[in-house]
Design goal:
The chain is an alpha/beta fold and 297 residues long. The chain has 2 domains: 229 residues, Aldolase class I (TIM Barrel, Alpha-Beta Barrel); 55 residues, no CATH class. The chain has 14 helices and 8 strands. Strands 1-8-7-6-5-4-3-2 form an 8-stranded parallel sheet. β3, α3 and β4 form a beta-alpha-beta unit. The protein starts with a strand and ends with a helix.
């Protein structure tokens, strides 16, 4: 890893162009969007599995519940990635209603079965991403982490919120520390990172091995350079939003990124700047990258 800071897997965000941009800015590891193992197993391919040869290291994040499909999906993607990650923390209704994502936290026996299948089906390292538990009355992240470790999982990401919290409420970094103190596999801390100072504080307070950065990177992908600089020197600089956008657009053109993704990224990157409301309105009307380039000067 060239740094200890990872780009989180995010729906409609972590396309190949954006992953490569974040890697160029210093992300130590990037992840694909979450991909259904059953959909991948049925078709043998998936548009979200857009890994490019230049990406190294790169992780794929899978989700699901069917053991046979999970095994097939792992074998399909293994040759193109460096790490197999499995989502056991997504709280979205359509996911948990299918007994996937965070719903698995209520089924430790199923977690064990899935981890065993992941490890036995892959020659690459396996990780899982979890939340604290289903709700405040069932905080079982440590139990899940120990199950994962016992089955041969190499790394675990902890987002210390419950499933029912969704994106509301605070994050409990003490839980990250508790798990780090009790397991011998690598622990990635996730949640509550809004600036470089937060990332350093997470390291200091939890002792985690790596920090995963999500939503703030959507607005400021340069944060990976900033946090790495801050950890090493105690200071960091900023990058003009227009420069970040131009860097992304070059990659989006090269890797033929879905234009809806492109517009979404540009709108995120322009939030909060002077005149952003009009700028985002103009971007939303653009029909191609060429028109966006005329807007971003």
């Amino acid at each position: 890893m060239k740094s200890k800071f990872f780009l989180a897997p995010m729906a409609d965000v972590t396309d190949a162009a954006f992953r490569i941009l974040c890697s160029n800015y210093g992300a130590g590891l990037t992840y694909t969007e979450m991909i259904s193992s059953s959909a991948l197993a049925r078709k043998g391919e998936n548009k979200l599995f857009d890994v490019q040869k230049i990406e190294n290291p790169i992780a794929v994040q899978l989700m699901g519940n069917n053991l046979e499909d999970i095994s097939k999906a792992v074998k399909i993607v293994s040759k193109k990635v460096d790490l197999i990650d499995f989502n056991m923390g997504c709280p979205m209704k359509k996911i948990v209603n299918n007994l996937c994502g965070a719903a698995l936290l209520r089924e430790p026996k199923r977690v064990k079965e899935i981890c065993e299948v992941l490890v036995s089906s892959s020659k690459k390292p396996v990780s899982i991403k979890i939340r604290s538990g289903w709700d405040s009355n069932s905080i079982n992240a440590l139990k899940i982490a120990k199950i994962a470790e016992a089955t041969g999982v190499s790394m675990i990401t902890i987002h210390p919120k419950t499933s029912v919290q969704l994106r509301t409420g605070g994050v409990d970094w003490k839980l990250i520390k508790k798990i780090k103190d009790k397991v011998n596999i690598s622990v990635i801390g996730n949640g509550g990172i809004n600036c470089p100072e937060d990332a350093k504080r997470m390291f200091d307070e939890t002792g985690c091995d790596y920090v995963m950065i999500g939503r703030v990177a959507s607005k400021n992908p340069y944060i990976f350079k900033q946090v790495d600089d801050y950890l090493k020197t105690g200071k960091y600089d900023s990058k003009c939003y227009s420069e970040m956008i131009k860097d992304y657009l070059k990659l989006a053109e090269k890797y033929k990124t879905n234009f809806n993704y492109v517009k979404g990224h540009i709108i995120y990157m322009t939030k909060g700047i002077v005149g952003s409301a009009k700028l985002r309105n103009d971007i939303s009307k653009a029909k191609n990258i060429k028109e966006i380039k005329k807007i971003i000067v």
